[in-house]
Each structure stands twice: as structure tokens, then as C-alpha cells.
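Could you show me just one protein sequence together with its fold in C-alpha cell form as a worked example?
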Amino acid sequence: MQKPTPEQLAQAHAESGLRGTLTDAMRSPVLARCLEITALALAHPRADRYRPPPAAPPRRLAADRTPYTTLPRDYKRASAADTDE
């Protein structure tokens, strides 16, 4: 596996928009691995030609739905032939 150069890691850190310094990020095993992957992806010859599709907007419930005005029927109670109301 290819290891990124310090310059590539610095570029990946700048592109990622992390708040801390590169040194602080490299102390975390997870952030260090993410920065390595990002640096290798940015170093790829076609990195500037591919942009991932935008994330889908969050799904929303239909605005015209109204809450229940009456309670739904209790089917378990009806199937037990319980007629007390």
C-alpha cells in the first residue's frame, strides 16, 4: 500500500476543513487513516474530474396529513368479541 507524503497529508487536511492542526489530527488513529485515504484520493490523476452526487434532501412527511380525529379501531378487542364500550 502506498503511503502519502507529508505535503499530500497537508493538502488533505486543508481540504477537509478540520479545526485542529495536522499534528493533532495525526494523533488520532481514525483521523490519521481518513486523512491518508483523502490524500491518496486527491493525488489520483482524475480526482479533479469526479464530483460525487449531492446528498438527497431529508424526507419529510406530507404537510396535508392531519392527526386522527377519532381513535383507530381496536382490532384485537374486536376479534375477541369484546363489546364493552
